[in-house]
Amino acid sequence: MTLAIIGGTGLTQIEQLNITGQRELETPFGAPSAPYVLGELNGQSLIFLARHGNPHRIPPHKINYRANIWGLKQLGATEIIGVAAVGGIGAEMGPARIAIPEQLIDYSYGREHSFFADDLAHVTHIDFTEPYTPSLRRRIVQAAASAGIEVYDGGVYGCTQGPRLETVAEIKRMANDGCDLVGMTGMPEAALARELEIPYANISVVANWAAGIGEGEITMAEIEKNLLTGMSNAIALLQATVLS
Ligand code: HPA
């Protein structure tokens, strides 16, 4: 098994990773966000990719999700954990909280979202009933429990287009739809992994209360402060997961 981790805002690199190499790839879909970092975390080898590039420079709607996932398949990744900063909508989803979502709704648009787009011998419709691979989700949740790291097991992730944050009305609509979390990068990443039959799960780190849920405007200072705590817990969770 080769685990891959895609790190989002606040997780451009993992300091605890013992780096053993780097791979720069071109794919039929263009260039991935950054060179793939090969390394060992707690003695377990894995592949790390900075979703927004390193340094962080690619906004959510400009990420080449297809190249990122295709490259991981080429490198032999057999499971992927996507780590993402999100806004909290549900009452349980306060700042710095970690959630392992179970469902998603895609509100993004105009992104290259499928490998099955052109020149098809036949149209392929993947099953996406459970967008996050249940066995991988369970493994993360169990690793959290054994390591004593508090996580929320479940929730619905809503993926917006960004890069702007949402309006109060948009968040109300998302809450009515059943969303607990709002982020900008969860899709099409999860669906592309499924198209290539790579098990995929998400670790969401809450950076802020979503628009209108908390008081006043959302500031980058608040987001950065919460991500500092949240991402260090997410790294501890990844360390526990690779050992499980
Ligand atoms: N909305 C969307 N994406 C986000 C947010 C948010 O409030 N916070 C961090 N990523």
Molecular structure report:
By secondary structure, this protein is of the alpha/beta class. The protein has 5 helices and 11 strands; from the N terminus they run ββββαβββαββαβαβα. Strands 1, 2, 3, 4, 5, 6, 7, 8, 9, 10 and 11 form an 11-stranded mixed sheet that branches. Helix 2 (134-147) packs across helix 5. The two termini are 12 Å apart. Hypoxanthine (HPA) binds at residues 85-87, 160, 165-166, 182-184, 207-208, 210, 218, 223. Hypoxanthine binds next to strand 5, strand 10 and strand 11.
Briefly, what is this?
Its EC number is 2.4.2.44. The protein is an alpha/beta fold and 244 residues long. The protein has 5 helices and 11 strands, in the order ββββαβββαββαβαβα.
